[in-house]
Amino acid sequence: MQVSKVLNNNVIIADDPQYGEVVVIGKGIGFGRAERDHIDSEAAEKMFILRSRREQEQYKQLLPQVDEKLIEVMNEAIRTIGNRISSPLNEHIHVALTDHIAFALKRMEKGLTFQNPFLYETKEIYPEEYELAEYVVNLIEDRLGTSLGPDEVGFVALHIHSAITNRPINEVRVHSELISDLVELIEQNLDGGLNRTSLDYSRLLTHLRFAIERICRGEEVRATDRLAELLAREYPEMYSLAWKLTKVMEKRLGLPVYQAEASYLTVHLQRLAEREGL
């Protein structure tokens, strides 16, 4: 490999004869190196490829601003995440998650903490991502001695989900916040708190998540007018609430919602209300 840029003592950008431009990580691999120096591939402890020129430039700009120990921890964490999931990670996770954690650590140093208002919903909707996020936060505490806390696990889980699904993190956050707000609206209308550990609550969250994803894809859900009429007659309170929820989704997402979504949501709400005794 030939060195194209030294980012710090332990990270360089190099031209690999097989993969092209790669990020190379190794203890002291950048120390005393200069551009066009040749390095044996065996000297690299870890290596990953940033194919996007935009990601390469963002990563180059980020690294000088981040502690080298954190860079090592984050690359280990991202490599482990990639090994544990079946689909490839969007390479933007190297920039986005590293930057997020670096900022979170700086906030912790100043005694500033952010409460995660949709932590429980994140854990229920994205269980695999949440488990991976717990690993990341625990690894940071083990290696750097700083505990980021459970709220941060939820934020990290959203970054991981974004990388797995190739969806922008802002979109993932918007959808998670929307689900949290829909749950709050349900509680207000049912005049009582929901048991957030129940199976029916978990099913409701899953239904809301997939409903939002269907709406974003423009996927039509079919149901007969007869079913809607039956639900409106038998469960008028839940049917009315379901329509309120679909109107909120329609407004927040800026997309039309098919009538059938309200019908299926009514069934979930009615079952939840019956089990909760509301």
Automatic annotation (TrEMBL):
Coiled coil: none annotated. The keyword Repeat applies. Residues 65-170, 171-278 form the PRD domain. It comes from the Bacteria. Transmembrane segments: none annotated. Keywords: Repeat. Pfam families: CAT_RBD, PRD. Belongs to the transcriptional antiterminator BglG family. GlcT subfamily. PANTHER family: CRYPTIC BETA-GLUCOSIDE BGL OPERON ANTITERMINATOR, PROTEIN GLCT. This is PRD domain-containing protein. It comes from Saccharibacillus alkalitolerans.
